[in-house]
Amino acid sequence: MELKEWNLKVPWGNIALLSRGNTSGEPVLLVHGRLDSAATFLPLLKLIPAKYYCVLVDLPGNGKSDPFPKGMVLSRFIGVPIIDLVVQHLGWEQFTYIGHSLGSEQGMFYASIYPKRVKKAVYLDPGPSLEYCNAVNYKQFFKSYQNFYDNYHKYDSEREYTKEQAMRSVLNARAINEEEAEIVLSRCLVQTGPNLYRLSWDRRYKITPGFNSLPQQFYIDLFSQHRTPSLFICASVMTDLYYQQSNLSVKLMSHMSEENKNVNVIWVEGGHDVHLTNPERFINELLMFLDNDFVISKL
After folding, report:
1. What positions does the domain AB hydrolase-1 occupy (predicted)?
2. What is the pLDDT of residues 47-58, one digit of tens each?
3. Is 27 in a helix, a strand, or coil?
4. Are 20 and 43 in contact (CB under 8 A)?
5. Residue 193, pLDDT above cutoff 90
6. In whole numbers, what is the pLDDT of the chain averaged over residues?
7. Where are the alpha helices (DSSP H) in the chain?
8. CB 31, CB 103: distance < 8 Å
9. What is the tens place of the pLDDT at every residue in 171-181?
10. 3-class DSSP state for residue 100?
11. What percent of the chain shows pLDDT beyond 90?
12. 60 with 15: CB under 8 angstroms?
C-alpha cells in the first residue's frame, strides 16, 4: 500500500499527514482517538478503494506530530481547530469525515460548526468518548485542572522504554495482539538510545476535561441539528459500559436515526479497536455508505 507522508507547518511545529488514493477522488479525512495515531487506520485503509482520496492526520502530541506548547491543559475540544487547519491546508470545500472514539466526538463538533463542509460522517465506536465529553458537575470539572497542575511534573515527563516494554504497555492498555501493537507503535516510538525509546503520546490527553455541567440534551440538539448523513459503527464488547439507555451515545443515536433517514447505526462484534483488529467485519456497510449519494435537505 503506497502512502504519501508530509507535514503541515503550524506555529508550534508540524502536524503529520498521510494520504492514499487518487488526489482527484472523493476526499475522506480520518481522525484518530485519544493517545493513538494515523496508524490505527492502516488495516481499514487497505480495504477502501483507491478511488477515494484518504488523508490521515496525527493530532498534535500523537504519532509524528509535534505536541502543543507545554503548560496548558488540553480540552476535549482542542482537536477541532486542528481539523479546520488541515481542511484549509487541503483546500477541501466538502469531504467525508471518519473518526474513531475522541476523533468521532471532535468530528461531531466540527460538523456542527461547519455543516456545509462535512458531506458525510462515519463515527467508529463513539460511545466511550461521548460518555466523558461533559463534566457532571463543577467540582468534577475543576478537579481535572487541579489534577493537572498538582501533578504537572508527571504530565510533562517522558518515560523511556525498551521496545519490549513499549510493546507490553500497549498490549496491556488495548485489546489487541502483537501484530496490531506493532502497527500502533509504528508512528509513536521515538528512539532515544540503544534499544531505548519514548512514546510520542502527549500524556495530557489522559485528562482532557469536558465542558462544565451541560445537560445531555444540549449535545443531542447540537450534534443533530444539521442532518448530516452519518454512520455509527459501534463495538458490541462496549455495550454494557457505554451503550445503555442512560448513556448519551444511545440517546443521541436514537434521536438522530429517528429524525434523519440518512443516519444509520450498526453493531459489530469486537472491541473498541475493531477498526484496527477486524475492519472486514463492517467494510461492506462502510463502502455502501461512502458510495451512497444522499439527498440532504437544505439548511
Report:
1. 27-165
2. 999 999 999 999
3. strand
4. no
5. yes
6. 94
7. 42-45, 79-90, 102-113, 127-130, 138-150, 152-156, 163-173, 178-185, 216-224, 239-242, 248-259, 274-277, 283-291
8. yes
9. 999 999 999 99
10. strand
11. 85
12. yes
Cell (9 digits) for 279: 475492519
- Pair type for strands 52-57 and 13-20: antiparallel
**Dist CA 230 CA 253 (whole Å):** 10
The predicted model scores a pTM of: 0.96
Residue type, 180: E
Residue 102: strand, helix, or coil: helix
Residue showing cell 523511556: 160
**CA-CA distance, 236 to 266, in Å (whole number)?**
10
Q: How far apart are CA 114 and CA 116, in angstroms?
A: 6
Helix axes 102-113, 79-90, angle to 10 degrees: 70
CA distance to 3, 18, 190, 262, per residue, from 56 (Å):
10, 5, 20, 25
Q: Is the pLDDT confidence value at 298 over 70?
A: no
How far apart CA 247 and CA 255 sit, in angstroms, is 13
The pLDDT tens digits of the residues spanning 234-276 come to: 999 999 999 999 999 999 999 999 999 999 999 999 999 999 9
Give pLDDT, residue 94.
Answer: 97
Mean pLDDT of 193-214: 90
CATH of domain 4-136+213-291: 3.40.50.1820
